[in-house]
Specification:
By secondary structure, this protein is an alpha/beta fold. It has a single domain, classed as 5-stranded Propeller (L-arginine/glycine Amidinotransferase, Chain A). It is built from seven helices and 19 strands. A three-stranded mixed beta sheet has the order 4-1-19, covered by helices on one side. The chain has a three-stranded mixed beta sheet with strand order 7-8-9, with no helix packed on it. The longest helix has 20 residues. The radius of gyration is 19 Å and the shape is globular.
C-alpha cells in the first residue's frame, strides 16, 4: 500500500473485501464510575459496587499487545489500519445536566462509529461515561474529511442523559425481580432506557446493503431506532430483539457472514419471528453458533462468553476469529471459510471482541439488495 494513501469512505455490509479499518486501543481503560445506565459490581476482583478506577496496567499491556498484533495481521493482508487517540479516561466529565466521575476507554470503535456507504455516523451513546468517547476518533474523521470530498461526516443528536432518560434504580430492581417478573420484562423489552430521547450504540446495527437491522437493547431505545429510520430514508430498517436478560450489541447474538449465510446465538431466541421469516424467504441459511470456549465471564469483563461469535469478515470467504475459539473455527472451516486465528483473549475486559475492536472505513462494493422479498410491516 502507498505510504500515505488518500482516504475513501465506503462500506455497505459486513463481508465485502475490507481495505481500510480503525482498530481500537486499550490505553488506560476504566471500570467506569456508577451512573444511571450501569453499575459495575466485581467484588472478587477489587471493584465492589460503587467503586471505580483504571483497569490494571498489566492488563492494558496484554490487551494492547494483542490489538497491535491484530493490526499487523490486517496490514499483512493489505488492509490499511488507523488507530484512535486515547483521552485521559480517569477524568471527571460533565454537561450542564450532569457530572460523571470517570469515562471508559476507546478499545471498541464499533460502538461509536457506524459506516453506511460514504457516511460515518457518530452514535449517541447512552452511558454518560461514554458521552465524549467520539473525541478519540475526531482526528481520524477530520483527516478523512480533508482527503475524501465525498465523505459524509454525520453525528446523531447528543442526548442530554438526564434522570428522565433512565428508569430509576433499574438494575438494582432487576436483581430483586422474581423469574416470572424478569420473563415479562424480557418479552416486553422493558430495559433501562426510557423513550425520553433517541439513544443508540452503533454496534447495535448490522448492515446488509439496502437493509439495516437494529437491535432494540439496553443501550438502543425505540426513539433511537426511529431516529435511524428517518436518518437513512433510502435504507430499509428492521428491528431485532432476542430473549436475553441484558441485551447489548448485536454482534454476539446475530451475525451476517456473507450473502445467504447468518450466524445465530443458540441461547438467544428471536422475539421478532419476522427476522427469521425474512431471511428464509430470501434464501438465507441461519446456522447456530458453536459452543464458546469459556463457561462464564472473564475477570473484570462485562462481555459474555459469546464473544466467540464476535468475528471480522475480511471478505466473503475469509474470517478473523479469536484463536481460543477452536470449536467456532472448526465450524467456520466446515462452512467453507478460510479462518484467520487471532489471539484476543486478553481484550474482552476492554469492551469486546474482534468485531467490536474495529470500525469499517472502506470495503469494496456498492449498495445491493440482499432481501428483495420483503415482509410487509417489517
Amino acid at each position: 500500500m502507498p505510504a500515505n494513501p488518500q482516504t475513501v469512505v465506503n462500506s455497505w455490509n459486513e463481508w465485502n473485501p475490507l481495505k481500510h479499518v480503525i482498530v481500537g486501543r486499550a490505553d488506560a481503560t476504566m471500570v467506569q464510575a456508577p451512573e444511571p445506565a450501569i453499575e459495575r459490581n466485581w467484588p472478587d476482583h477489587g471493584f465492589p459496587r460503587g467503586t471505580y478506577g483504571r483497569l490494571p496496567p498489566a492488563m492494558d499491556a496484554k490487551a494492547n499487545e494483542q490489538l497491535d498484533n491484530f493490526a499487523r495481521i490486517l496490514e499483512s493482508r493489505g488492509v490499511r489500519v488507523d488507530r484512535p487517540t486515547p483521552l485521559d479516561f480517569s477524568q471527571e466529565v460533565r454537561t450542564p445536566d450532569w457530572k460523571q466521575a470517570s469515562m471508559f476507554g476507546c478499545m471498541p470503535p464499533r460502538d461509536v462509529l457506524l459506516t453506511v456507504g460514504n457516511e460515518i455516523l457518530e452514535a449517541t451513546m447512552s452511558y454518560r461515561s461514554r458521552w465524549y468517547e467520539y473525541l478519540c476518533y475526531r482526528p481520524l474523521l477530520e483527516q478523512y474529511f480533508r482527503e475524501d470530498p465525498n465523505f459524509r461526516w454525520e453525528a446523531a443528536p447528543k442526548p442530554r442523559l438526564t434522570e428522565r432518560t433512565y428508569r430509576k434504580d433499574y438494575w438494582r430492581k432487576w436483581e430483586k425481580m422474581t423469574p416470572a417478573e424478569k420473563e415479562q420484562a424480557i418479552y416486553h423489552q422493558d430495559w433501562v432506557l426510557t423513550e425520553e430521547e433517541p439513544c443508540f450504540d452503533a454496534a447495535d446495527i448490522a448492515r446488509a446493503g439496502k437493509d439495516l437491522f437494529v437491535y432494540h437493547s439496553s443501550v438502543t431505545n425505540r426513539a433511537g431506532i426511529d431516529w435511524l429510520r428517518r436518518h437513512f430514508p433510502h435504507q430499509r430498517l428492521h428491528v431485532m430483539s432476542f430473549y436475553e436478560t441484558n441485551p447489548i450489541h448485536i454482534d454476539a447474538t446475530f451475525v451476517f457472514l456473507r450473502p445467504g449465510l447468518a450466524l445465530s446465538n443458540p441461547k438467544r431466541v428471536p422475539l421478532v419471528p419476522e427476522l427469521t421469516d425474512l431471511l428464509k424467504r430470501n434464501g438465507w441459511e441461519i446456522v447456530q453458533a458453536a459452543q464458546p470456549a469459556l463457561d462464564g465471564y472473564p475477570p473484570l469483563s462485562f462481555c459474555s462468553p459469546w464473544l466467540s461469535m464476535n468475528t471480522l469478515m475480511l471478505d466473503p470467504k475469509t474470517i478473523c476469529v479469536d484463536a481460543q475459539e477452536v470449536r467456532q473455527m472448526e465450524q467456520f472451516d466446515q462452512l467453507g471459510l478460510e479462518v484467520v486465528p487471532v489471539p484476543f483473549a486478553d481484550v474482552s475486559a476492554f469492551g469486546g471482541g474482534l468485531h467490536c475492536a474495529t470500525a469499517d472505513v472502506y470495503r469494496e462494493g456498492t449498495c445491493e439488495d440482499y432481501f428483495p422479498k420483503q415482509i410487509e410491516g417489517y
